[in-house]
Amino acid sequence: MNITITAATEMELDPLRNSFSDTSHSISFHIHGAGLLQATYHLQKLCMQKPDLIIQCGIAGTYSDSLSIGETVVVYSECLGDTGAEDHDTILDLFDIKLLDKNSFPFTNGHLLNEVVRNIQHLKAVNGLTVNMTSGNEKSIRQRKEKFNADIETMEGACLHYVCLQENIPFIQFRGISNLVEPRDKSRWKISDALQSCQQEVIKFVYQLPSAI
């Protein structure tokens, strides 16, 4: 298989570069950058190369008490957390303000779904929320939790889902949980643990893939 492994930063990708020397797969590595603009542009270019599979990996914060710091998850659904409008203390997304239909392709009831992850039994399949500005105060955290009912927060996940669904390219998103979504306190973050866990799961996943599809 021709597999592309991509991440927002070199930190999230570098340990994987020398992990597949004895696999039959053809694997390339790409940095797509942080945030929706960079990620969408670079993921679109990657899709034009028509890989058999795109794997996105990286860290995430969690809104959920059922997820542990250092745990790795796969992302089933994605949505956009700060695209739309504010109406006083209420968040309105593109669907609320009638700029997009909830079931216009590739959306399903306002979400970008990846049914493939249902086949990965040993990892939790979660709902992702993608934002350009990560949550760092009580008000934005509360608003986003109430509005979107997401399990994790990232800055690029929805870009992967949107572009790959549009281009009909198989994809999967792995995320290591590095921190709680809470008022910003980097002293509590466990980035190294999250990255190591995520990278190990990506390696295991690639090695169990068939040589062709």
Description:
The protein has helices at 10-13, 36-47, 138-148, 157-167, 191-207; strands at residues 2-7, 26-31, 53-62, 72-80, 84-87, 90-93, 112-113, 125-130, 152-154, 171-180. 26% of the residues lie in helices and 28% in strands. The chain has a single domain (2-207), classed as Nucleoside phosphorylase domain (Rossmann fold, 3-Layer(aba) Sandwich), CATH 3.40.50. α2 (36-47) runs parallel beside α4 (157-167). It is globular and about 55 Å long. The protein is α/β, with parallel strands linked by helices. The chain has a five-stranded mixed barrel with strand order 3-9-8-4-10. It is built from five helices and ten strands.
Name the features.
single chain; 213 residues; alpha/beta; Rossmann fold; 5-stranded mixed barrel; two-stranded antiparallel ribbon; 5 helices; 26% helix; globular
Strands, helices and their partners?
Elements: E1 2-7, H1 10-13, E2 26-31, H2 36-47, E3 53-62, E4 72-80, E5 84-87, E6 90-93, E7 112-113, E8 125-130, H3 138-148, E9 152-154, H4 157-167, E10 171-180, H5 191-207
Parallel strand pairs: 1-2, 1-3, 3-10, 4-8, 8-9
Antiparallel strand pairs: 3-9, 4-7, 4-10, 5-6
Helix pairs in contact: 2-4
Offer a concise description of the structure.
With 213 residues, this protein is of the alpha/beta class. The protein has helices at 10-13, 36-47, 138-148, 157-167, 191-207; strands at 2-7, 26-31, 53-62, 72-80, 84-87, 90-93, 112-113, 125-130, 152-154, 171-180.
